[in-house]
Amino acid sequence: MFTFSFNHVALSVKDVEKSSEFYIRVLKLKEIENTASDSKTRWFSIGEGKQLHLIPRPTAEIKTNKAVHFALAIKDISPFLKHLNTMDIAYADWLGTPDKNYIRKDGIKQFYFQDPDGYWIEINEDFD
């Protein structure tokens, strides 16, 4: 038997500066030191010792769909939805209905939006 704990999500990004600005502005993530190398990869704390790594790949073809996403939980999505609206960032439910969140079968509210490279981010209220 193995025991794991989740450590980080790494995303290939076309423009690491633009993507870093997005994650700082939109998700209010705090940049932390890249202790692994002297590369241009930027690291961010997503809380509880977990990290987001943005790896510059200017020539990479980035293809994804909504089923490939990462999810962040928040106690109340309403203030964050207002934040997205003030920043003019589009969001939708799972089916793609604009400006709509969804209530899952288990009662949890959630919605999705995309970063500058098209990666999907889910925000939900599954917060303990």
Could you describe the 3D structure shown?
- The radius of gyration is 15 Å and the shape is globular.
- Helix content is 16%, strand content 31%.
- A four-stranded mixed sheet has the order 1-4-3-2, covered by helices on one side. Strands 5-8-7-6 form a four-stranded mixed sheet, with no helix packed on it.
- It has 128 residues and is α/β, with parallel strands linked by helices.
- It folds into two domains: 8-56, Roll (2,3-Dihydroxybiphenyl 1,2-Dioxygenase, domain 1); 69-124, 2,3-Dihydroxybiphenyl 1,2-Dioxygenase, domain 1, CATH 3.10.180.10.
- The mean pLDDT is 96.
- It has two helices and eight strands, in the order βαββββαβββ.
- Strand 3 and strand 4 form a beta hairpin.
- The protein starts with 7 loop residues before the first strand and ends with a strand.
- It has helices spanning 16-25, 77-86; strands at residues 8-13, 30-32, 42-47, 50-56, 69-73, 102-103, 109-114, 120-124.
- CATH H-level superfamily of the largest domain: 2,3-Dihydroxybiphenyl 1,2-Dioxygenase, domain 1
The count of helical stretches stands at: 2
Mean pLDDT over the full residue set: 96
> Order of strands across the biggest sheet?
1-4-3-2
Distance between the termini: 27 Å
Extract low-pLDDT stretches.
none
SSE arrangement, N to C: EHEEEEHEEE
Strand content: 25-35%
Q: What Rg, in angstroms, do the CA atoms define?
A: 15 Å
Q: Would you count the extended β strands for me?
A: 8
SS content category: alpha/beta
Helical residue percent band: 10-25%
Main sheet makeup: 4 strands, mixed
What is the level-2 CATH architecture name of the largest domain?
Roll
Remind me, CATH topology of the largest domain? 2,3-Dihydroxybiphenyl 1,2-Dioxygenase, domain 1
Instruction: Tell me the overall shape.
Output: globular
CATH hierarchy, class of the largest domain: Alpha Beta
User: How many separate domains?
Assistant: 2
